[in-house]
Specification:
By secondary structure, the protein is α+β, with helices and mostly antiparallel strands. The protein has eleven helices and ten strands. It has two domains: 84 residues; 220 residues, 2-Layer Sandwich (BirA Bifunctional Protein, domain 2), CATH 3.30.930.10.
């Protein structure tokens, strides 16, 4: 068999192949791959030089070397294409987690200030044995008013600017004006003893200003058992004030009216030398107990309600309640 090295380059087809494969395997970047292509496959490359040297061979050897060189060209083109594709795939994978770039601090969100305060309030009562529950924001008139000792002709209904919803299938439907409907719903489906805390959104059709919003959060509390007294109410709410505002916080209870409690009170805290009301409370009205199917001669209870936004305004020195719902990141990012 004639030798395949009688070209002007002095390099055989086998030697060229070994050198090309070894160089291709060591090429790690697109620049190195392009340099390889120019060196071995380019117009002035080593394979082209080998083919140009065929003229110095006799005709029989020229046929053998020429055929081998053409086969090598096809092999090298295939290997080069595969190597380029592999390099692109590797670059795409590495690029998604490019360790050569400086690290980027992830952008983390946070809880809304109202949510933070609601969680702090509910945790305080959870630690005193209350269970957190939630109720519907679209409510029936029965639970929002009637079962809470607020019949249709009761003047107390004027205190709530109700947003009504037309729904012939369920009668009078509304957006709840307070979370108190869950008092009736809870007692209707549970036997005493009951201790629940109810956070949720409420809605009232009223003008907005620095201290009023048409939608806001409220946290309702209810406890019913045999032998509960007003002293239990005062002790529970005093402990709550100490947990939220500090162990030295002073509280004051004054008579107030709410249709679903008797007697009713408001609770204030001493804040910067002034007394500020933070919630309404009282002993559950006997009619409310009876409407839910409880024996009012056997069971007593107390209830209370507060606005977490108002408590947060005190704690964080916020002067306008509308900030909570304006979606202004300059405000929200402070929490």
């Amino acid at each position: 068999m004639p030798k395949t090295e009688g070209t002007q380059t002095g390099e055989t087809v086998e030697e060229l192949k070994l050198a090309a494969v070894a160089a291709l395997d060591s090429a790690d970047s697109s620049e190195e791959l392009e340099a390889w292509r120019v060196d071995f496959m380019g117009r002035k490359g080593r394979l082209t030089g080998l083919l140009r040297g065929l003229g110095s061979l006799d005709i029989d050897e020229r046929k053998i070397v020429g055929a081998a060189a053409n086969r090598l060209r096809g092999e090298l083109e295939t290997l080069f294409e595969e190597r380029v594709n592999l390099s692109k795939s590797s670059q795409a994978t590495v690029g998604s987690i490019d360790i050569t770039l400086p690290g980027r601090k992830p952008s983390l969100g946070g809880l809304h200030p109202s949510t933070q305060m609601i969680r702090e309030i509910t945790q305080a009562f959870n630690e005193m044995g209350f269970q957190t529950i939630e109720g519907p924001e679209v409510e029936l008139e029965k639970y929002n008013f009637d079962m809470l000792n607020i019949p249709a002709d009761h003047p107390a209904r004027d205190q709530w600017d109700t947003i009504w919803v037309d729904d012939d299938a369920h009668g009078d439907v509304l957006l709840r004006t307070h979370t108190s409907p869950m008092q009736a719903r809870t007692m209707e489906t549970n036997d005493p003893p009951v201790r629940v805390i109810v956070p949720g959104k409420c809605y009232r059709y009223e003008s907005t200003d620095a201290t009023h919003e048409w939608h806001f959060n409220q946290v309702e509390g209810l406890a019913v058992d045999e032998g509960l007294t007003f002293a239990d109410l005062k002790g529970t709410l005093y402990e709550f004030a100490r947990r939220i505002f500090g162990p030295s916080m002073k509280v004051r209870f004054r008579c107030d009216f709410f249709p679903f409690v008797e007697p009713g009170v408001d609770m204030s805290i001493e804040w910067n030398g002034n007394w500020l009301e933070i919630m309404g409370a009282g002993m559950v009205h006997p009619k409310v107990l009876e409407n839910a199917g409880y024996d009012s001669t056997k069971y007593t209870g107390f209830a209370f309600g507060m606005g977490p936004e108002r408590i947060s305004m005190l704690r964080n020195e916020i002067t306008d309640i509308r900030h909570f719902f304006s979606n202004d990141l300059r405000f929200l990012s402070q929490f």
